[in-house]
């Protein structure tokens, strides 16, 4: 008896899809530990760890075991994944077979770390697939034949760009900068402008609610922070214009990656791309004005996937029921 799963190991969230059931879990990729002198005890996982952000004592640390697409702690990530699997109440006699999404272009050594982490969590059989391919499949793009898909994935830890066809990556690249790093940059910008410290989680909320690439956007949000000088609580109003420069810096770096990827493609593929345009996936792709900003810069259509936030896990889940296409992809990418 086997339980067949797809697992999206994102920097921000871990999502699990059960074959013939759909998405059965999506929780923050966060773990909370307490202690000192390397003697740490896990006190919370996922949603419960997120609730503790900004509300803990000095001896409590909340972090993600994945950073910039790479596993930084097998011990903690396997514990987190094991906890999530236990929440699914899988029959203990059932062997777990998992298709796990990973960033494109990581080393074979980094892939081995993902595999070993899954084994440590109790998974019996592991197959790895580039998350950007899964994102294309989850968005309904056909990558089986000679039609070409051009995808940009805006994740929490990395941003990826790839050209796909014939069930493989023709050209692609990764920027080791994503939504989490952008949140830190936003918090820094607010501290410099208003002399008020806001948490990274608050900065993420600011990005989601008032972040915009439109120059004249008037969105605003009141947030709580701590005055740098007085150390007292202080409320401030953050406007879109206050953080726009940080958004532009990030997106301009992504544009460089997009242009480099395009320049490496053969002319025939470039012609297909120009006609169909660029598809955006990932939670970060919902940034207000992003598609229009990129479209103007690269002079081609640019659209956000209808399933942007969950495209990767939905695509991996879809492939669980299409063994022929999955095998073709894995044969090409070495998963």
Enumerate the strands of the largest sheet in spatial order, edge to edge or round the barrel: 3-2-1-9-10
Using the 3D structure, state the CATH architecture of the largest domain: 2-Layer Sandwich
Strand content: 25-35%
Stretches with pLDDT under 50, minimum 5 residues = none
CATH class of the largest domain: Alpha Beta
Helix content: 25-40%
CATH superfamily of the largest domain: ATPase, nucleotide binding domain
Distance between the termini: 23 Å
> What is the 3D shape?
flat
Following the backbone from N to C, one meets helices and strands in this order, namely EEEEEHEEEHEHEHEEEHEHEEHHEHEHH
Pfam family, one: MreB_Mbl
GO molecular function, one term: ATP binding
Keywords: ATP-binding, Cell shape, Cytoplasm, Nucleotide-binding
Subcellular location: Cytoplasm
Q: What attributes does this structure have?
A:
335 residues, five-stranded mixed sheet, alpha+beta, Nucleotidyltransferase, domain 5, 2 domains, 11 helices
Q: Overview of this structure, please?
A:
With 335 residues, the chain is of the alpha+beta class. It folds into 2 domains: 2-29 and 64-134 and 312-333, ATPase, nucleotide binding domain (Nucleotidyltransferase, domain 5), CATH 3.30.420; 143-305, Nucleotidyltransferase, domain 5 (2-Layer Sandwich). 39% of the residues lie in helices and 30% in strands. The protein has helices at 46-51, 74-87, 108-120, 131-138, 179-194, 200-210, 240-263, 267-276, 290-298, 311-319, 323-333, and strands at residues 2-9, 13-18, 22-28, 31-36, 39-45, 60-63, 66-67, 70-71, 95-102, 125-130, 149-154, 159-165, 168-175, 196-197, 220-227, 233-239, 278-281, 302-304. Strands 3-2-1-9-10 form a 5-stranded mixed sheet, with helices on both faces. A 5-stranded mixed sheet has the order 13-12-11-17-18, sandwiched between helices. A hairpin with a 2-residue loop joins β12 (159-165) and β13. α5 (179-194) crosses α6. The mean pLDDT is 93. It holds the Pfam family MreB_Mbl. Its main location: cytoplasm.
């Amino acid at each position: 008896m086997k339980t067949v799963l797809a697992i999206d190991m994102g920097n921000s969230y871990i999502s699990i899809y059960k074959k013939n059931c759909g998405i059965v879990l999506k929780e923050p990729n966060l773990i909370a530990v307490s202690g000192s002198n390397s003697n740490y005890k896990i006190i919370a996982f996922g949603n419960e760890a997120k609730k503790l952000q900004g509300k803990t004592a000095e001896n409590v640390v909340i972090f993600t075991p994945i950073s910039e697409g790479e596993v930084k702690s097998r011990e903690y990530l396997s514990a987190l994944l094991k906890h999530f699997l236990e929440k699914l109440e899988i029959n203990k006699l059932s062997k777990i077979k998992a298709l796990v999404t990973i960033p494109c272009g990581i080393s074979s050594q980094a892939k081995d770390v993902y595999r070993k982490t899954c084994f440590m969590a109790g998974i019996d059989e592991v197959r790895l697939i580039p998350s950007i391919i899964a994102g294309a499949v989850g968005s309904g793009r056909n990558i089986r034949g000679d039609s070409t898909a051009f995808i940009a994935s805006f994740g929490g830890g990395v941003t990826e760009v790839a050209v796909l066809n014939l069930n493989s990556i023709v050209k692609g690249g990764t920027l080791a900068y994503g939504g989490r790093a952008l949140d830190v940059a936003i918090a820094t910008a607010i501290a410099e402008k208003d002399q008020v410290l806001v948490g990274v989680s608050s900065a993420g909320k600011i990005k989601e609610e008032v972040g915009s690439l439109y120059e004249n956007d008037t969105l605003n949000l009141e947030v709580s922070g701590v005055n740098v000088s007085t150390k007292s609580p202080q409320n401030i109003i953050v406007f879109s214009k206050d953080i726009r420069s940080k958004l532009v810096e990030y997106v301009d770096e992504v544009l460089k990656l997009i242009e480099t990827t395009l320049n490496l493609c053969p002319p025939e593929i470039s012609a297909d791309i120009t006609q169909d345009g660029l598809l955006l996936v990932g939670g970060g792709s919902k940034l207000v004005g992003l598609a229009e900003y990129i479209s103007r810069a690269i002079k081609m259509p640019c659209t956000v996937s209808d399933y942007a936030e969950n495209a990767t896990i939905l695509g991996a889940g879809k492939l669980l029921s299409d063994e022929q296409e999955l095998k073709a992809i894995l044969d090409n990418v070495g998963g």
